[in-house]
């Protein structure tokens, strides 16, 4: 079975927000006084794996992890490790790149643990 939208287009991509929190307050993104969700309402790494695993059976081929800033989740590594078990065709990450970064030969900074599991990443700020 495949997911389709109201115009009968196949749904292949899934955006997954791990948190609404961020370590920055870009004006175009965050309200001046944000009210964040209670962390107790967050899905667990295992719940993400179960839900996304089900959706793969419905034709999802690309999963993009986002936030807020997903790297502020203390269990971020665990979430990624759980998702890596699913063998998602394309797993990518949107991040501001400020946390847990290391210098590379190109001078850019990449989250150091992204390379093993996440195939692509995109910065939400320049
Ligand atoms: S770093 Fe990204 S998620 Fe955070 S406030 Fe700026 S645009 Fe939004």
Overview of the molecule:
This protein is of the alpha/beta class and 126 residues long. It has a single domain (13-124), classed as Transcription Regulator spoIIAA (2-Layer Sandwich). It contains three helices and six strands. Strand 4 (101-103) and strand 5 form a beta hairpin. Helix 1 packs parallel to helix 2. The longest helix has 12 residues, at 45-56. The chain is globular and about 40 Å long. The model has no long low-confidence stretch (mean pLDDT 85). The structure holds iron/sulfur cluster (SF4). Iron/sulfur cluster (SF4) binds next to loops.
How do the helices and strands line up, and which of them pair or pack?
Elements: E1 13-17, H1 45-56, E2 62-66, H2 76-84, E3 90-95, E4 101-103, E5 109-111, H3 114-117, E6 120-123
């Amino acid at each position: 079975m495949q997911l389709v939208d109201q115009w009968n287009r196949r749904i292949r991509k899934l955006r997954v927000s791990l948190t609404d929190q961020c370590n920055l307050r870009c004006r175009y993104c965050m309200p001046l006084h944000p009210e964040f969700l209670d962390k107790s309402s967050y899905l667990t790494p295992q719940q993400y794996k179960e839900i996304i695993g089900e959706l793969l059976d419905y034709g999802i081929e690309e999963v993009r992890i986002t936030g807020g800033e997903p790297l502020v989740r203390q269990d971020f590594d665990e979430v990624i490790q759980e998702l890596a078990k699913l063998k998602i065709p394309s797993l990518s990450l949107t991040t501001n790149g400020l946390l847990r970064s290391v210098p590379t030969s190109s001078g850019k900074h990449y989250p150091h643990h992204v390379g093993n599991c996440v195939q692509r990443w995109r910065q939400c700020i320049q």
